[in-house]
Amino acid sequence: MILIFKHIKKAFIALLLIGFSVNSSHSQDIEFGQYGTYTIELEDIGLEDLVFQGPINSGSGIHEVELIDSKVLSIIGVKYLDVDVDITADGKLYLDGDPSYDTDPERSIPFTLDAAFANNGENNVSASKPIGIANTPSMISGTARFPILSRRQQPPGPPPTPPTGDFDQSLVNETAYLYFYGQIDVGNVVAGSYRGTITVTVEYR
Amino acid sequence: MYKKLLGLIITALLPVFAVAQSQQNVSISVSATVSGTIEMITINTVDFDDIEQEGSVIRVDPIFGERSGKMVARGTPNAEFRVDYIRERELVNLDGEGIIFFNYEVAGNRIDDQETAELLDQDIRDLQFNEEGEFYFWIGGTIDMSDVNPGSYQGEFTIEIEYI
User: Fold this and answer.
1) Looking at the DSSP assignment, which residues form a beta bridge with residue A38?
2) Angle at A179 between CA A177 and CA A180, to 5 degrees
3) Is the model's pLDDT at B158 over the cut of 70?
4) What 8-state DSSP symbol labels residue A162?
5) CB contact under 8 A, A34 and B25
């Protein structure tokens, strides 16, 4: 009897374990990037930063950089893999880039960031999809997750060959593009150069 | 049994903590230059008093003429600007009937030196303030005196400056 009970107890624990492992796995989401040593590159395309072109006068209100004039970054990586993109920035541009002017409305300009990505293998804003950005006066943040190459409603392809001595990642690389644009709202500010920084991080999912 | 169970769970969690993901960062600069106001200061007006007349035309050379008018524009240091002015202005006779036409000529320089100034003879010119935010103009021109009533004539000169 005791023996049977022991067996039951084992079976119960085994069931518990299976139950636990089912709950902890998210469908069939396999994070290949966690186990491989695939490289990812994030490159700045074009020489110029995100510049709001002049003339910009004090009190002149909204000035815009449109999607078509975006600052562009490229992500080069394994086309089968998903990437997480993390975007952060200050919600203002500061006179001479000095963040100590954060509470000084005469030396800071509210900044609203917009972003988009294209993962169809082409640097083309017309095929881009927007990235949700939370804009607040103190902080801008946004995230996106997408495959380097869109699967176009097809089931995902085979998993990439695990990196070995013979593995040539360049054969399975593709390029996705990130676009950054937005607006500033110029109040009654002192004349001068206003600057801010957007930090973009990409990693394999 | 519980130890085994705990061991299994820890083993299951290990890969999550042993993550070695490839990650890349890039910083993008965002910038905007806010221009200040532009101030125009007249230093000298164009002086035609008792000027020597050759034929019917009086001319004050904006580059080499001592009688030329002088103005200084003050704005944002090193900022580019565009200048435009009306070439021909009417001067009216303050003492009676008659008008004469003044054809303006303007020269400009980033430094306060008339003789090295450049004649601004195109319709619209793109120029740049110097490091102190100043730009100098010398104003001259010609008047045809062939059919002019006696009197004292006065008119104005308009120059437009805007940031590019």
Assistant:
1) none
2) 150
3) yes
4) P
5) no
Distance CA(B111)–CA(B130), nearest Å, equals: 7
Pairwise CA distance, residues A104 & A106, whole Å:
5
Gyration radius from chain A CA atoms: 24
Tell whether pTM > 0.90: no
Question: What pLDDT score was predicted for residue A202?
Answer: 95
Q: Which of A75, A194, A204 sits opposite B31 (nearest CB)?
A: A194
- pLDDT tens digits, A166-198: 677 788 889 999 999 999 999 999 888 999 999
pLDDT value at B9 more than 50 = no
Interface check A144 vs B, CB under 8 A: no
The 3-state secondary structure of chain B, one letter per residue: CHHHHHHHHHHHHHHHHCCCCCEEEEEEEEEEEEECCCEEEEEECCCCCCCCCECCEEEECCCCCCCCEEEEEECCCCCEEEEEECCEEEEEECCCCCEEEEEEEEEEECCCCHHHCEECCCCCEEEECCCCCEEEEEEEEEEECCCCCCCCEECCCCEEEEEC
Yes or no, beta carbons of A52 and B31 under 8 Å apart: yes
- Tell me whether A59 touches chain B (CB under 8 Å): no
Residues of B in contact with A180 (CB under 8 A): 28
DSSP character at residue A59: T
**Banded pLDDT at A149 (limits 50, 70, 90):** very high
Return the half-sphere exposure (C-beta side, CA atoms, 13 A cut-off) of residue A36: 24
Chain B contact probe: residue of A12, A34, A44, A185 with most B CBs at under 10 A: A34
CB contact under 8 Å between B32 and A51, yes or no, is yes
Nearest to B58 by CA among B126, B134, B135, B153: B153
ipTM field = 0.77
A6 — contact with chain B (CB < 8 Å)?
Answer: no
